[in-house]
Amino acid sequence: MKVTTKKAGFAGLAMFGAAALLAGCASAPEESGGSTEAASDFLPCMVSDAGGFDDKSFNQLGFEGLTAASEELGVEPKTVESAAETDYASNLQSLVDQGCNAIVTVGFLLAPAALESATDNPDIEYVSIDDTVDTDFDGTTDAENIKPIIFDTAQAAFLAGYLSAGVSKTGVVGTFGGMNIPTVTIFMDGFAQGVDYYNEENGTAVKVIGWDRDAQDGSFTGGFEANDGARQVAQGLIDQNVDVLLPVGGPIYQSAAVAIRDAGREIALLGVDADVFETDPEVADLLLTSILKGIDVGVEDAIIEAGNGEFDATPFVGTLENEGVGLADYHDWADAVPADLDAKVQELRDQIIAGDITVESYLAE
Quick check: 97 and 43 in contact, CB under 8 A? Predict the structure, then answer.
């Protein structure tokens, strides 16, 4: 089974629920045929969040997209890593001072600093990964020079939840996040919806530990570092008999992997953002699948557009329909997924795309 992210998937554009954004959305970028000569003086830049560019997750995907775009344009990008949230504003200013023409900010938490920088520097083009930068909640991005690239990952997480409930032998699956912020909880909420749907269809009672949909709260590490605190949160869920575990928050999956190995029993790990089987072979044997976001493709297209003088601030929203989100292969776990369960996951994907199943999320409202 493969429901994955491809460049061709950006031919369509899903839409925000907010009416103003519905009116402003346009088609995603075409394959660029612009001249690299026009981009010779173009300087693309990127600032990471505290996870850093080697997080084997969304920061790394953003970096890969920037690198690919820069190679096509024939330019050298500048990047800066943030060690903490307090670095965001100063790191952005350092890129402004170096003459960057386009700046990519990676992560929801960078949005306030990105807005301030974009407002102060209207001639610079900004790309915001994982946030609409809509601080007044009127349905539009707060600066005309910011392009949001965001993902309705609840749709893909729904499929992962249904799949997880289907392979669980203990009848208990778990999830935890780095922080209780929308770009994290959208995974957890979609996952829980998928488990609920499995129970409704099959008359089962698979439990989700670590996320309460009604309370919109659950288990969080308080950050995005792979540390002993994250391992302890994972261990607490494992102690409640989970046999499928979804960590949401960049490198915290590495701490979950340690807890899984220490448990000494079969527990499936779910990755997020990238296909973690490919980005981190050290945990490959544990991975049932990964919930994908096409961050690399989105960044590459946006930067190529900017480098060719065709910057388009229209928000891109990744969905199952445009393949901006999806599930990775089952890889080593393929034999553990019954053919009828795999077929059902594919059927559910088609039903979500057709609108026959609605997956709730803040991007679908």
Answer: no
Structure-block tokens of residue 167: 């392979």
What is the per-residue pLDDT for 4? 43
147 by DSSP, 3-state: which? strand
- Torsion sign, CA atoms 119, 122, 128, 131: positive
**Is residue 2 in a domain?**
no
Q: What is the DSSP string of 54-85?
A: TSSSHHHHHHHHHHHHHHHHT---EEE--SSG
CA contacts within 13 A on the Cβ side of 249: 31
Distance, in Å, from the CA atom of 13 to the CA atom of 32, rounded to the nearest integer, reads: 17
Each as own residue / partner, the long-range contacts of residues 351-357 (CB below 8 Å, 24 or more positions apart, any chain) are 352/155, 352/158, 352/159, 352/320, 353/319, 353/320, 353/321, 357/158, 357/197
Q: How many CB atoms lie within 10 A of CB 63?
A: 24
Domain that holds residue 25: 7-152+295-318
What sign does the CA torsion over 249, 106, 109, 157 have? negative
Query: What residue ranges in the chain does DSSP mark as E strands?
Result: 44-47, 78-80, 102-106, 125-129, 146-151, 172-177, 207-209, 211-212, 217-218, 244-248, 268-273, 287-293, 316-318, 325-327
Question: What is the spatial distance between Cα 250 and Cα 274, in angstroms, rounded to a whole number?
Answer: 10
Give me the torsion for CA of 79, 85, 86, 89, rounded to 10°.
50
Say if residue 348 is in the same domain as residue 265. yes
d(CA 192, CA 160): 9
CATH number at residue 20: 3.40.50.2300
* Alpha helix segments (H runs only) across 103-152: 111-120
pTM for this entry: 0.84
Position 186 in a domain: yes
Residue numbers of the chain with a pLDDT score lower than 70: 1-39, 365
Can you name the residues that pair with 269 across neighbouring β-strands? 245, 287
- Strands 325-327 and 287-293: what pairing? antiparallel
Residue 105 resides in a domain: yes
Distance CA 290, CA 335 (A): 16
What residues does 316 pair with on adjacent strands? 149
